[in-house]
Amino acid sequence: MNTAWWVKRQSELNPQKKALIFEGEVLTYAQLHKRACRAACWLNDLGLKKGDRLALLLDNCPEFISLYLAASRLGLICVPLNYRLTPPELDYILRHSRPVLLVFAAGFEDRLAPLKLNRTRPPMLLSRVGAPEKEDELKGEVLDFQAGALSFQGCQPFSGLSLGPSDPDEPQVIMYTSGTTGRPKGAVLTHRKTFFNCLNAEIFFNMSADDLMLVILPLFHSGGLFIQATPTLYRGGTLLLHRRFDPQKTLSDIESHQVSKFLAVPTVYRALLKQKRKTDFSLKSLKVCAIGGEQVTHELLQACSKAGFPVRQVMGQTETSILLWASEEDSLARPGTQGRPVFHAEVRVVDKTGRQVAPGEVGEIVARGPVLMKEYWQEPEETEKTIRDGWLHTGDLARVDNGGYFYLVDRARDMYISGGENVYPAEVEKVLRSHPQVRDAAVVAVPHELWGQVGEAHVIAEKGLSPSAEDLLAWCSGRLAAYKKPRKIVFCSEFPCTPLGKVRKFLLRQTKEEAP
User: Fold this and answer.
1) What is the pLDDT of residues 3-46, one digit of tens each?
2) CA dihedral angle for residue 179, residue 181, residue 186, residue 189, rounded to 10 degrees
3) CATH T-level topology, domain 29-166
């Protein structure tokens, strides 16, 4: 149950098989294994040891894959970072996870310079992939990853831990997901979880060594790393990796590389459908396309099918990866369904007492089995709230029909998804409330043609003060990632609340804009 072991075995069985294609560069399994070994030697030489955290602030690139594999080889805990986050957001995650080393891509210096990472306690090593695009804003020593890794041949044995299956319940990755308290939580994902995610993905995608998987989703997300990249390497297929999503390039590469498997969020499919109307690329090589990350309309599924995308649905979260799936036929024949549970997990809908509800009744989706996270990093209370009696409570409300198909009703924790990115209103509200002219704020999701959903912030100004919408949006710009920023500010004199003071957010969607 070690990803580095899988690539080593593939390098022995099929050394010349293509493992990774990236911007014209092709790596065989033998070459990818050697790169991972070199990275592991370099990490070991820097003094990183089992249990240490390795943070990655990288685009989709071969270096991400080789470092991810090297971390598994050494028993390090990989911490992928969302490169869309602002400096304060990155600062919290880095202070919370306390990595020994942060490897970042050239071009991200402006995000890191304000954090003064070279002067943190305990110290944090910094390493860059690629040459800096301008005068280095980081004060202090920054290691060159490529030069450092190339100084090693990657031969075995090398000092440190030998390659082999680790304890399957040891942490492999800490993947941060926003929390309802307004701060991110680090989901601790084990080697066992990754293995069973691979088995589920293998069944869902009907994967074989002949498959070519196109990855346009960021590897810092579960979808890109655990549903696409890792299962493909486990099965011995080929990864076609895009640094960022580009509709024209995606359609072009599907045709030219004969892509067979693909996963994206609804926002991506909408962009692809729009681009395909302007071009005439063939999609005949596609065997399975998956769609997930947010609720999918029946109209979008029909449009995808008509255009040549054989789309089937997936639903899950960082803490579990895929929990529900639906075939292409079921997705079209059962509008609104998220499908049935994956093979290697038990999924139920329960009431507040934990009792499984009858078909048609609404309850919370809970899950148990080997695909669950181990815990939230350094958050025992949040872990106890989420995992109770072995069941992980997702916070999603749903009903199940007599055939066992799940239908999502609402997100109990107010989270919404914009362009495939999770957004928690509590985090946005916290930033708005920190503005000196704001007394209170409540954020709700509203439909958006391109992004699926965006935030609408309802704000109560401090008495006698009149902040403008432009002021508040500018306040958010340096404190929140762009996808988290509300698209509209609605000023209110008061919020509709329950007798206990909880904001009734469904009523806010009906609120008319007022002068502050």
Assistant:
1) 999 999 999 999 999 999 999 999 999 999 999 999 999 999 99
2) -60
3) Rossmann fold (3.40.50)
Comparing C-alpha atoms, which of 294, 315, 316, 318 is closest to residue 377?
318
The neighbour count for residue 505, using CB atoms within 10 Å, is 16
- Cβ distance 489 to 460 under 8 Å? no
Distance in angstroms (rounded) separating the CA atoms of residues 174 and 68: 12
Identify the weakest region by mean pLDDT among 116-130, 232-246, 438-452. Answer: 116-130
Name the CATH code of domain 200-411 (choices 3.40.50.300, 3.40.50.12780, 3.40.50.11540, 3.40.50.150). 3.40.50.12780
Mean pLDDT, the chain, as a whole number? 90
What is the C-alpha separation between 354 and 389, in angstroms, rounded?
Answer: 10
Q: pLDDT at position 181, please?
A: 46
Other CB atoms within 10 Å distance of the CB of residue 395 = 18
Q: Which of 424, 396, 456 is nearest to 181 (CA)?
A: 424
Q: Could you give the 3-state DSSP secondary structure of residue 185? A: strand
Write the pLDDT tens digit of every residue in 186-225.
Answer: 999 999 999 999 999 999 999 999 999 999 999 999 999 9
CB 15 within 8 A of CB 4: no
Residue pair 264/107 in contact (Cβ under 8 Å)? The answer is: no
Q: Where are the CATH 3.40.50.980 domain residues in the chain? A: 29-166
Sequence-separated (6 or more) residues with CB below 8 Å from residue 326:
312, 313, 334, 337, 338, 339, 340, 405
